[in-house]
UniProtKB/TrEMBL annotation:
Keywords: Cell membrane, Membrane, Transmembrane, Transmembrane helix, Transport. SUPFAM superfamilies: MetI-like. This is ABC transporter permease. InterPro entries: BP-dependent_transpt_permease, MetI-like, MetI-like_sf, OppC_N. Residues 92-292 form the ABC transmembrane type-1 domain. Its main location: membrane.
Amino acid sequence: MSGAIARFRDSDLWWSFKRSPVTILSAVVALICVGGALLAPFIAPHDPFDLASLNLGDAFKPPAWDEMGDAIYPLGTDDQGRDVLSAILYGARISLLVGFCATAFATIFGVSLGLLAGYIGGAVDSVLMRIADIQLTFPSILVALLVDGVVRAAVPREVHDQIALFVVVFAIGISEWPKFARTVRGSTLVERNKEYVLAARVIGVPSLRIMASHVLPNVLGPVLVIATLNLGLAILAEATLSFLGVGVPPTQPSLGTLIRIGNDFLFSGEWWIAIFPGLSLVAMVLSVNLLGDWLRDALNPKLR
């Protein structure tokens, strides 16, 4: 373990990271967002989803630094008396969970199809890439809305809330797979004609094993970059769906749901209900995107 850490600290990746103040700051912000979400049950001042503890008399309290604010609600309360800070911490858990799961699903699905298309070629390649081309002509959020609507229409209404999280993950993931598939397919077309792949074929190694053990490790560099950038897009897509009212159920509000709730009161003076969740979403997505930009440059040999 110590040897692996030592090799990493001597790598070009670590050298590039420690020489970029923007990247370091982005990593710190991302760690704060992820840590706050994971530790929400322990560090949140209140449990915003405990209905027994809510008091409508505490509704619409401004942030603590306002003369009408209360120190026990640092960022104020919403229309139901929920602590905004606690709601953000818990809501970030949902947003990050959906983002990570949707990105993982899109990565696995897209990489698998890209490997298959690039290695086998022929009709399989043509069919898969034409499907990807057609899907890429539509904005991802429209594809996610379509998939979400079709799934919700196909299942009974009484189970919508129980499967809502899985539906959102599937809808976002299935809308992003073509990016991974096209990238991996292009890299696989290059790798499949190299000597080590030809040698493996000659000695009778099965095609599935060649793809998994030989080709896949050599095409993962671009995939890692796309996955990092796609994480921010997935979080934004989930927030958009929840803002439109077709994301996670109101009983499990994400940052998008909190922004939608706050939007109803934005012009009546209760600005903090929407602004603070919105700033949290911006910080989370921006930090992830900046890390993705750094990773893309750090893994590009032409920029070294």
